[in-house]
Amino acid sequence: MILSASNIKKSFKSGKSETLVLNNINFNVEEGQMVAIMGVSGSGKSTLLHILGLLDEPDSGDVYFSGEKINFTDKKNLALLRNANIGFVFQFYSLINELSVLENVLLPTMINGIIKIDYAKELLLRVGINQEFFNKRSYNLSGGEKQRVAIARALINNPKVIITDEPTSNIDENNAKLLMSLLRDLQQSFNTTVVISTHSNKIARFCDTTYFLSEGVLTNEDNS
Ligand SMILES: Nc1ncnc2c1ncn2[C@@H]1O[C@H](COP(=O)(O)OP(=O)(O)OP(=O)(O)O)[C@@H](O)[C@H]1O
Hints:
Blueprint: E1 3-14, E2 17-29, E3 34-38, H1 45-52, E4 60-65, E5 68-69, H2 75-85, E6 86-89, H3 101-112, H4 117-126, H5 143-155, E7 161-165, H6 173-190, E8 193-198, H7 201-204, E9 209-214, E10 217-222
Parallel strand pairs: 3-8, 3-9, 6-7, 7-8
Antiparallel strand pairs: 1-2, 1-4, 4-5, 9-10
Helix pairs in contact: 3-5, 4-5, 5-6
Adenosine-5'-triphosphate binds near residues 14 and 43.
């Protein structure tokens, strides 16, 4: 099992009230699988993805990466673990507008100091971004193109897992399907594990398993 979580609880306090968002969640994904987490707005998908992506600590419960229990208090080690093993693609592209397309893809490599320019170019071509875009500032790109650059950036350190939060919600249906086919294709050729949150059944159908998050409880369904 590449990534698993057991008995995860997470609540948020606002003033005197406290909302329990995740109530004893259990989650498993095997290496090379693509899984969807579905749920209505506010059901806690992003909260769960932040925990699975080792960005946030649960109130209780454990997360395991490659069988190893995560120690959320060791922030330095957590950051290294994330940088080496997890790629992120978020809803609002999260590209840095002032940087070029190529520089955006290279960003995660700046942390470990191994700047892989040729590999970045190869990945950009692989996600369908042509050479003429490489040195353009990323704000010139369309939503779908930005998402493809974000995927190339997520892949640059050869992560074992890609965590993607509603990657298709700001692009039209046709581009959303193209993006999912691309993710599926990349996941199969790199044997990457992909965890994706979505509101859409159509998007979830591209995945091997679909989890449903509702009222803090997670259930799952095999899509084969
Ligand atoms: N940092 C926070 N502080 C307080 N409340 C939060 C915080 N993060 C999330 N919440 C609350 O937790 C609940 C779940 O939010 P979350 O963003 O995880 O849902 P979601 O399913 O991803 O929603 P969407 O589909 O709209 O992105 C919401 O009620 C939200 O307001």
